[in-house]
């Protein structure tokens, strides 16, 4: 959807390096969800952000939602081969019970 | 709990053939969704069911029909498959209200020749 833009589209990093993926919305985000998809598999939920300025971490992955609630970043520290895959952001763009809108995803490769 | 399950995992069809993709969830979720994922296009919503007994079109509904059989099951039917429907199809479910996590099934890879 054009309402949710992810950048970069793809990323190749050396093992051990840090990286950041961005997700920008043209509308206010009522909720922002990060998913990871391994090649050929389904989407695995990582974390959800709701409040402006909120930050959550899981192992070496940290996600933030900016104060204006229109952009989120996903940061991976000391990347490992297990981090490789496609990262997708999904968003609640309405306050009601409506389907999530998704970005096109960021394909991450981690090389030794 | 199995979460969201989908059958089949893979399918090859000839143009014009019909088939039904099955989806079931065991999380007592009200809402269920069908998406398709294509290279460079991301996830696009085909149809969704906000609650049992209701269905609505998403972004790309043409060529598809859905049935919310009961609270657990939501099927997607291709009446006359076309090569443009070659894709990976994902079913998802979510509890009622905002800020509920949406969970996905493992996907169905469909090739239409």
What report would you give on this structure?
The complex is a heterodimer of chains A (112) and B (113). Chain A is 0% helix and 54% strand. With 112 residues, chain A is mainly β. Chain B is mainly beta. Chain B is built from no helices and eleven strands. The interface between A and B is medium-sized, with 24 and 28 residues.
Topology, element by element:
The complex is a heterodimer of chains A (about 110) and B (about 110).
Chain A: E1 4-7, E2 10-14, E3 19-25, E4 31-37, E5 43-49, E6 55-58, E7 61-65, E8 71-76, E9 85-92, E10 101-102, E11 106-111
Parallel strand pairs in A: 2-11
Antiparallel strand pairs in A: 1-3, 3-8, 4-5, 4-9, 6-7, 7-8, 9-10, 9-11
Chain B: E1 4-7, E2 10-13, E3 19-25, E4 31-38, E5 42-49, E6 56-57, E7 64-68, E8 74-78, E9 87-94, E10 102-104, E11 108-112
Parallel strand pairs in B: 2-11
Antiparallel strand pairs in B: 1-3, 3-8, 4-5, 4-9, 5-6, 7-8, 9-10, 9-11
Short synopsis of the structure:
The complex is a heterodimer of chains A (112) and B (113). With 112 residues, chain A is an all-beta fold.
What share of the residues of chain B lie within helices? under 10%
> What is the average of the pLDDT values of chain A?
92
- The pLDDT mean of chain B sits at 93
Radius of gyration of chain A, in angstroms, nearest whole number? 13 Å
- Helicity level of chain A, as a percent range? under 10%
Strand content of chain A: over 45%
Measured distance between first and last alpha carbons of chain A:
33 Å
What overall geometry of chain B do the principal axes of the alpha carbons give? globular
The largest sheet of chain A, given as strand count, sense and whether it forms a barrel, is: 6 strands, mixed
Oligomer: heterodimer
- Report the order of strands and helices of chain B: EEEEEEEEEEE
Provide the structure class of chain A: mainly beta
Largest sheet of chain B: 7 strands, mixed
Distance between the termini of chain B: 36 Å
Question: Strand pairing plus helix content of chain B: what structural class?
Answer: mainly beta
Radius of gyration of chain B using CA atoms only: 13 Å
Query: What is the molecular shape of chain A?
Result: globular
């Amino acid at each position: 959807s054009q309402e949710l833009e992810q950048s970069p589209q793809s990323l190749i990093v050396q093992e051990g390096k840090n990286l950041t993926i961005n997700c920008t919305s043209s509308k206010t985000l009522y909720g922002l969800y990060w998913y990871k998809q391994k090649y050929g598999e389904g989407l695995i939920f990582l974390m959800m952000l709701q409040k402006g300025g909120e930050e959550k971490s899981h192992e070496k992955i940290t996600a933030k939602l900016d104060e204006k609630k229109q952009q989120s970043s996903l940061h991976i520290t000391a990347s490992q081969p297990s981090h490789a895959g496609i990262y997708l952001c999904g968003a609640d763009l309405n306050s009601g019970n409506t389907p999530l809108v998704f970005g096109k995803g960021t394909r991450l490769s981690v090389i030794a | 709990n199995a979460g969201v399950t989908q059958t089949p995992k893979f399918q090859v069809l000839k143009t014009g053939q019909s088939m039904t993709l099955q989806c079931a969830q065991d999380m007592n979720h009200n809402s269920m969704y069908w998406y398709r994922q294509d290279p460079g296009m991301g996830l696009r919503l085909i149809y969704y069911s906000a609650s049992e007994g209701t269905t609505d079109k998403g972004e790309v509904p043409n060529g598809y029909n859905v049935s919310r059989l009961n609270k657990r099951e939501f099927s997607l039917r291709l009446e006359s498959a076309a090569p443009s429907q070659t894709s990976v199809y994902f079913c998802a479910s979510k509890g009622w209200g905002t800020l509920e996590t949406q969970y996905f099934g493992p996907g169905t890879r469909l090739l239409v020749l």
